[in-house]
Design a protein that fits this description.
149 residues, mainly alpha, MYO5B protein, coiled coil
Length: 149
């Protein structure tokens, strides 16, 4: 059984690795194609007059900025959708907290007194430890100096 589990894990890892390698190969191919397009555009640009080169460069920059703008709009839409989802969850949790607080308000007084007594007993037990020290973080250097001397 243990060997089967290891073998299954190894196969899963191998499959994941192969998928990752395939994705990387596809990415490299896409980058090669993009590089070829850019090289062709660059060669074409060199053959143009200086005014046409400037206009071509501006056109390329406009295209790049438009694509970037679309990507940013898509990201904004995702973030807005996520914000709405989180607001809904927050409302649900706030309602649960209010319901819980309302249910705690209706708990009989003797039960609350019993809970307080239990908390006090727990606090007393925790304070029985020896060798424990409570201090403020900013007093630490002074405390260390006093312990050393």
């Amino acid at each position: 059984p243990f060997l089967r589990l290891l073998e299954a894990q190894l196969q899963d890892q191998r499959r994941e690795h192969e998928e990752e390698v395939e994705a990387l190969k596809n990415e490299v191919e896409a980058m090669k194609e993009e590089l070829e397009k850019q090289q062709q555009a660059f060669l074409q640009t060199l053959q143009l007059s200086p005014e046409a080169q400037v206009e071509f460069g501006l056109q390329q920059e406009i295209t790049r900025l438009t694509n970037e703008n679309l990507d940013l709009k898509e990201l904004l839409e995702k973030l807005e959708k996520n914000e709405k989802k989180l607001k809904k969850q927050l409302k649900i949790y706030m309602k649960k907290v209010q319901d819980f607080e309302a249910s705690q308000a209706t708990v009989p007084a003797e039960r609350r007194q019993h809970e307080r007594n239990m908390q006090v007993a727990v606090q007393r037990k925790e304070k029985d430890f020896q060798g424990m020290l409570e201090y403020y973080k900013e007093d630490e250097p002074l405390l260390i100096r006093n312990l050393i001397t």
